[in-house]
């Protein structure tokens, strides 16, 4: 027999150093570890053209100028602000006219601080008419834009004396002839003092909130007034403006409206709402 190591004979059981069985086990493990392919869920069917058109129609079905909606807005304003009136202090049509001119780009609080001192110093239109605008400027400086306002007040006083007998006129056309008087000022005097509903006062609050409530889409005050006159009943023109002004100061604040406390919340779809229970409309911008 030759010397050296003899090769091992295969065992009778067929197991030879686990060579044959190892690959088999590995294959078995691989087969078991491979997960069965998942069935894909069926893709949802795309909505038909008819259904999509119906959805669009439903979203456009909101009519902000519907009489029922407008009447509900007015009812809630009456309930929240039952005694709304002009916040400018005055004792005559002339004092109201001057105070309204001074209120441009100024708060009513500031005007109410300046006006009593002013009217004590110059109690009548005749007293204002004798002034030069430069003489009035120091008395109204704190209201802002005092140079233009001085010219308007003195000019209005002189016009009243020369053409209207010192009396503030009762018609829109005549009021608009006075220096510094536009439709807003004329509507304030006619509505508050004479109780004549010739239009709607459109100040910054009315302009902003009317757009938020989708009662108008315009930016120009005159166009906004025309839109409001079409949807608001005439007997509400005067009080509506005062109510909206109070609402703008108390709740519907420009920078951060208090929507959670607003009685009109579920009727308002404004894009800048801070809290809402209804859908938001992109077109309802202040």
CATH superfamily of the domain at 93-193: Hypothetical protein, domain 2
Just name the CATH architecture of the domain at 93-193.
Answer: Orthogonal Bundle
* SSE pattern, N- to C-terminal: HHHHHHHHHHHHH
What does the overall shape look like?
elongated
CATH class label of the domain at 93-193: Mainly Alpha
Straight-line distance between termini: 111 Å
Structural class: mainly alpha
Q: From the alpha carbons, calculate the radius of gyration and give it in angstroms.
A: 39 Å
β-strand number? 0
What percent of residues are in strands? under 5%
Helical stretch tally: 13
Q: What fraction, in percent, of the residue positions are helical?
A: 40-55%
What does this structure look like?
It is a single chain. With 286 residues, the chain is mostly helical. The chain is 50% helix and 0% strand. Among the domains are: 67-84 and 201-267, Helix-hairpin-Helix base-excision DNA repair enzymes (C-terminal) (Endonuclease Iii, domain 2); 93-193, Hypothetical protein, domain 2 (Endonuclease III, domain 1), CATH 1.10.340. The chain has helices at 21-33, 49-59, 67-80, 93-102, 108-121, 125-129, 133-140, 146-163, 172-175, 183-193, 204-212, 221-231, 237-250. The N and C termini lie far apart (111 Å). Mean pLDDT is 86; it is low at 16-31 and 43-59.
Give a short summary of the structure:
The protein is an all-alpha fold. The protein has helices at 21-33, 49-59, 67-80, 93-102, 108-121, 125-129, 133-140, 146-163, 172-175, 183-193, 204-212, 221-231, 237-250.
């Amino acid at each position: 027999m030759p010397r050296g190591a003899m090769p091992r004979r295969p065992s009778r059981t067929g197991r030879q150093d686990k060579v044959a069985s190892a690959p088999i086990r590995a294959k078995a493990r691989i087969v078991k570890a491979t997960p069965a392919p998942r069935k894909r869920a069926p893709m949802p069917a795309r909505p038909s053209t008819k259904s999509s058109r119906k959805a669009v129609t439903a979203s456009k079905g909101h009519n902000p100028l519907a009489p029922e909606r407008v009447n509900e807005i007015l009812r809630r304003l009456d309930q929240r602000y039952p005694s709304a009136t002009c916040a400018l202090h005055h004792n005559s049509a002339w004092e109201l006219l001057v105070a309204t001119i001074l209120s441009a780009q100024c708060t009513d609080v500031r005007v109410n601080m300046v006006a009593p001192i002013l009217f004590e110093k110059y109690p009548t239109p005749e007293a204002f008419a004798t002034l030069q605008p430069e003489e009035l400027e120091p008395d109204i400086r704190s209201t802002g834009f005092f140079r233009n306002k001085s010219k308007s007040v003195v000019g209005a006083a002189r016009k009243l004396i020369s053409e209207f007998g010192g009396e503030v006129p009762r018609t829109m056309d005549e009021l608009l002839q006075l220096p510094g008087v536009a439709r807003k000022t004329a509507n304030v005097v006619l509505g508050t003092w004479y109780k004549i509903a010739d239009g709607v006062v459109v100040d910054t609050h009315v302009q902003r909130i009317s757009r938020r409530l989708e009662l108008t889409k315009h930016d120009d005050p005159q166009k906004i007034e025309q839109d409001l006159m079409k949807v608001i009943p005439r007997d509400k023109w005067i009080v509506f403006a005062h109510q909206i002004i109070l609402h703008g100061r108390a709740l519907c604040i420009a920078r951060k409206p208090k929507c959670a406390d607003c009685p009109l919340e579920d009727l308002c779809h404004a894009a800048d709402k801070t809290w809402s229970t209804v859908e938001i409309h992109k077109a309802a911008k202040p």
